[in-house]
Structures are given as structure tokens and as C-alpha cells.
Amino acid sequence: MTTPEAGGAPFLDLYGEDFRTDPYAVLGRLREQSWQAGTAIGTAVLRYGEVQSLLSMRQLRTPGADFLAMQGITEGLLVDTMRGFLLNADGEPHDRVRRLVSKAFTVRRVEDFRPAIRGIAEELVAEMVLGEECDFIAAFAHPFAWRVLCRFVGIPEEAQLEVRLWAHDVGLIFGYSVEEHRARIEAALRNLHGFIDELVDERRQAPRDDLLSALIAAEEAGELLTDAELRSMVITLMAAGHGTVQHQLGQAMSAFMAYPQQWRLLAAEPALAAQAADEVVRYCPSSLLGLPRIAKTDVEVNGLKLAAGACVLPITGSANRDASVFEAADTLDISRKRMPHLTYGGGIHYCLGAALARVELQEALPLLASRLLEPTPAGPGEWLPPTEVVYGPVRLPIRYQPVRP
After folding, report:
1. Is the pTM value of this prediction over 0.85?
2. Residues in CB range of 159: below 8 A, 6 or more apart
């Protein structure tokens, strides 16, 4: 993987203390100087128009196994797994699987599941209002995101703890210390493979009203998903679908504590739920950096020449605060109608789970606002660094005035 020249563009130190402490301030300063910035791994693209263009360019692909190769891993189970993820597929193989998966993972299915999402949120909030203080991540964000995902996919309740541990370990494949965790990741993958294969056999014999049964039944012109494709899709959902929502909820609560008038507005006007969900994903996304792209051929973007193999970073979290597109871009405002944000990506790799994530936020946020009044920090939180695949608090102590039934 090569790094393109960024010319006279400013430099973005992704691993510097300034970026770790306040990434939006750093991105904002650089974005005012230029639409691009150099980094240690490739050119970062900072403004809305250019990021939007990059996301839809089929001359670019997601890195996939490239990051493993950077860490000295070029073959074996981890490489095969990374290449099997839909996000890392390209061309007709990607299009075929995406078409089949889209027949099962529909907006209608998500909407039909909305009452179940609401029920899980209500159950967790009922426990929270028995007190006046909690760690928001442990009390709500983590269990809510996990329980919703498991029920939607079709993971039996008795297996959810084991699957959660395996999914966590598999998630380490997306980091920068894969060799250190290699044995752990491979063990988790083998366990998940065996579990999913058994579950697929069960659903083939006795389908249920869940996503896994719908994926098994998805058909187009006589084609079905193979066992390997089903396995890969479930692993993708379990490894990626939980952390993004958990950390987005944590990001949202942190942002609303900084904008208490917006929390009060949401409590008073729950009809703003959809706008509130989109606004927090724009203002403080759990995927701040987005996904890097690799040039498949020589390509030019706004005068920037990328050689084949070059890495470019379309930073969606920066594009979402481009003042030329979003008025008062650095302000959380759930009452303002905005241009579409870019957090869920674009082009052929637009986030498959976007509809589910939206509904989870739409159901959780107004309920929390109506039952936990005036939330404030109850101590220092603990955050992942912004360079992680997902960015947000892993611990967020809050204090609030509970509204009990």
C-alpha cells in the first residue's frame, strides 16, 4: 500500500495528543485550510463534496486484508475471513451477495421489529429510574444494542453471552494489534463458525421470524447465499452491528449533556425523534474517521492524483461539520433540518444496517429524554481513541432526575 503525495496540504497527526483530546477542533482547523491533509497512512479528505465523491467511486475499494498485510499477516484464517466480509468484496461477487442480503434486510423488516426495540428500551429504562445515577454504557447503551441485535438476527437467548464474547474477540481483527491477538481471534472465529453452522441447520428445518431465516430464504433467479456467505454475514453483523450503536448512544448522551436545552426539547417534542437520531449521527458519529479506501487504478480526485494502491481517507466525521454545507455545523440542533450526513457511507458500501441503527436511536433517545431529566456527568468517563474503528465512551457515569411511573 503506497501513500499519495498531498502536495502543500497541511498534516493531520492522527496519533497526536491534540487529535486524541479534541479531534473535531483539529479537523476544523485543517478543513478551513484545505479540503485535504496528509497523514502517516494516506491523504485525508476533509470536506463534504470531496468525501461524498470518494464514497461513490468504484475505482476505489475498501482495504480488507491490506491492513492485515501491513501487520505481516498474508494468509490463513484471518485473511480468508477478512476477504469474505461483504464490505471488502468488490465487483460482481459483491453485487450478487448485496442483492440477496437486501432481499432479507429490508426497511419493512426493521419497521416490523420496532415494537420489540421499544420494549427492550422500556425494560432497561425501568431499571434505571429506580436510582438517580448509573454508568450509562453498562446500564443502557451496551445491553440495549446487544439485545436488539441478537433478537433481530435470531441468536437464542441462552447463547448470547458466549456469542458476545466471541464477537468481541473477532472484532480485534479490525485493529492494529492483530498479531498480538491472533490466537484469540482465530479461536473465536472457529467457535462462531461451528455455532452459526448449527443455527443455520436449525433454521432451515424450522424457520422463524428473524433475519437469519430470511437470509437463508433469500433467492434471486435460483441463487441462494452459500453456507460460507451466511456465516460471513452473521459474523459481520455480530462483530460490527453492536459496537457502533452502543458507542453512538454513548456519544449522543455525552452530547446532550453538553446541550441540555436539546434534551429538554426532545422530551417535550418526541416527534423530533427522527431528526434527533440523524443529528447525533452527524454531530458525533461513532465512526468518526469512516473507512479508508484503496485506489484500484490510477485515479484523480479534485486535482489530487492517486496511484494504484494508494490509500485515501474520506473522513466522514469531518465532512459532517463542513460549514459550507451545514449551518452552525459545530452545534447540536435537533430542530434544524439538515442536508444528509455521510456517516453511513455511500455508493455500493452504504451501511447495510443503517435502517436498524436509525430505528434504535429513534426509539431509545426520546424515551430516555422523557424518563431521565437533566442528565449531567457524575464523574470522568473513559473513551476509546478517535483512531479506533468505533469511537465513543466505554464508561459514562451520569446523574439525573428519574421520572418513575
Report:
1. yes
2. 195
Per-run averaged pLDDT (10 residues), the chain, 405 residues: 57 95 97 96 95 94 86 92 87 90 95 98 98 98 97 96 92 83 95 96 96 93 91 89 94 98 98 98 95 92 90 96 97 96 92 95 98 98 91 97 93
- Counts for the chain of helices (H) and strands (E), in that order: 19, 12
Distance of CA 278 to the CA centre of its chain: 14
Give me the number of domains the chain comprises. Answer: 1
Give domain status of residue 2, yes or no. no
Does residue 203 contact residue 218 with C-beta atoms inside 8 Å?
no
CB 203 within 8 A of CB 216: yes
Q: Is residue 6 part of a domain?
A: no
Task: Kindly report the CATH number assigned to the domain that includes residue 334.
Answer: 1.10.630.10
Query: Considering Cα of 333, then 336, then 337, then 338, what sign does the dihedral take?
Result: negative
Q: Are 310 and 59 in contact (CB under 8 A)?
A: no
Q: How far apart are CA 298 and CA 283, in angstroms?
A: 33
